[in-house]
Amino acid sequence: MAIHVSELNIETYRGIKALKLENFASVNIITGDNNCGKTSVLELLRSVSAPSDFSVWKGLIRKNSMNMREGISYYEGFYDLFDIDEDDKYIKYNVGYKNEEHEIIMNAEILEDELLEVEYMKLQGISYAHRRHEQDYLINVKNILLKLYVDGVKASESRVYEGQLRYMFHNTTKRDNIIYISPASHTTSYMYLNAVLNNSDMYEQMLDVLKEYDKDVISINYDNSYAETSGRGVYKILSKSHQKALPLNMYGDGMKKAVLLMSAAIAAKDGVLLIDELKTAIHTSAMDRTFAWVIEMCKKLNVQVFLTSHSKEAIDKLLKCSPQNTSSMAVYTLSKRDDKTVVRRLDGYTAIEVQDNMGLELR
Question: The pTM is what?
């Protein structure tokens, strides 16, 4: 199976300090208590193919760090990428990726500059038509000056202003195939089904697994009749349980999550698949077949997998769902110790042994 990322050594990122993850496997299960940094590890892995591209870092901003009352402010979002307890704001990590090792550093300097009111309005997305006077005033606005360094060389620089709602990037860095699935991704209408609908064998296999969620499922098709009014079509599922095909969004979260996971595994061909909170929405009875299909498809398509979970049941089923691939798995348990994040690594077989026969907790 694939090993595209071999190691990740984080000096500091968000709340993580001095965390070294080595000897990554083809399938990597990251577990531990809440707030120990599981999601943060996946975030950094999202950046490894184009670490100097600020649009990649923009994608790491969490919605719960945004000032939603004022609108989406990129200032707060970028500020929260750094250790809140340190005055010296920087991110630093080393990564082994595609048989190369790189050091990535992002420095942040908090500044205050004068801007013309009309310039600040533009950053906030406010129309000039709302101005009540003709004279431009200078106003003081906080901002973060961001500088990215790769292997000691400055690769890019950008500035984000407090209250800034529009943040445009023009970096055209080519990125490798890294797909991230958040705990709530299945609640959106976005899927990766095009990769499935163009492959009859994979399509039939996926339908067979989906019978765990609807035993009468017949087909999944793309209906573009809505495109003229909504700008895009919808995926519909035809089932013997209903007289006509229903939009995928009308199904339960379990069906949507399964379709998302399986289609993403195919779309991630020759790349990396990141799954945050694997268990979310997947019923226990359907875990074995769903997890096994994803793992085996990733092996077939040269995809390395990283996933997080704090569910003992989900981890156990993942380790055992595809016995021929257990040797290609590893479990990383994160925990906080003093001001550092520490890790315990177990290979797949050892993880099963300590959990089943020794009664030790993997989480």
Answer: 0.91
